[in-house]
Amino acid sequence: MQADKLKQGDEIRVIAPSRSLSLIRVEQRELAKKKLEQLGYRVTFSKYSMDSDEFDSSSVEARIEDLHDAFRDPKVKGILTAIGGFNSNQLLPYIDYSLIKSNPKRLCGYSDITAISSAIYSQTGLITYSGPHFSTFGMLQGNEYTVDCFNRLMTGHESIQIRPSDYWSDDAWYADQERRTFFPNEGPYIINEGDTSGVIIGGNLCTLNLLQGTMFMPDLAGAILFVEDDYESSPATFDRDLQSLIHQADFNKVKGLVIGRFQQASQMTRDLLTKIIKTKKELVSIPVIADVDFGHTTPMLTFPIGGQAKLKADEGRIDLIISESIR
Fold first, then answer.
1. Which candidate in 46, 296, 323, 324 is catalytic?
2. pLDDT tens digits for 176-222?
3. Could you tell me how far CA 248 lies from the centroid of its own chain?
4. Residue among 228, 233, 266, 323 flagged as catalytic
5. I need a surface site. Which of 95, 143, 149, 326 has the fewest CB within 10 A?
6. InterPro entries, alphabetically (predicted)?
């Protein structure tokens, strides 16, 4: 199931189901709102999005009310999360999934939002989106790729052939918008060759793993997994987290693995990641590629959780196509 495509004049509601919108600087919030308005959208903010407690978040009740209001309001067509965090999985037992199924909207965010996006997909069949937060639209430089991919997926009807960005960055752009560091993008690389297609499942790996053993974990059968992690994920931690996912009962039916770019502080290297992948017999027969433009570096692509992907990795060439429905 997918929500209607966005169009000019549609309302996008900003909610804060993880950390508070108040953590975002005023000027960044204004820039993000302006950018979305330039794309033709109207931007509104949920009632409790600015609330903040000792965890830089708000109560479960407040966050659930904002989430439900955004899906219930017929004027709202798209929903953007303010920022990531650590606690969105607190909300999962309290979400009214029947309300969401009856009022499908385009929910987009990444990192900690993986828990909500995955749970909504698993419980309702509604396609959700791993992509920019509202705060991401407040970036002044190097954001064209992110905005273009988001808008193409949200408004267009064609499949998207994923091309690498020209440059990428891993700096604290929100702290200093003028002094940025960009690196030429060499593009993704192949670890295991193969040719496959399947349902896109994934997002932030350590957050997805929080759903293991619960009713909210998506079915991995027939999936092409898109996974990434942030600077706190060292090679050893990523290895352990990936192994935990591999231990899921239906992992033997996974059809491919697409890994997002690691942050520099993680100290992951191509050689280390290749060794991690090559030590896992469960991955031998499926295509695996890495350094794709998503995760905690910028820019990032938007991909549909519950959508479709075609992946061909052969003789040094990678073809990756994503769509809400590939026929």
1. 296
2. 999 999 999 999 999 999 999 999 999 999 999 999 999 999 999 99
3. 21
4. 228
5. 326
6. Carboxypeptidase_A_C_sf, Class_I_gatase-like, LdcA_N, Peptidase_S66_N, Peptidase_S66C, S66_fam
Q: Which CATH class is domain 11-138?
A: alpha beta
Given CATH 3.50.30.60, say whether it is the number of domain 160-323: yes
pLDDT digits (tens, 9 = 90+) for 230-256: 988 999 999 999 999 999 999 999 999
- Write down the catalytic residue from 49, 57, 58, 111: 111
Q: Is 232 annotated in the active site?
A: no
At 15, the pLDDT band (50, 70, 90 cuts) reads: very high
165 tagged catalytic: no
Greatest Cα pair distance in the chain: 52
Active site residue 157: no
Answer yes or no: pTM beyond 0.90: yes
Give the phi and the psi of residue 23 in degrees, each rounded to 5: -70, -20
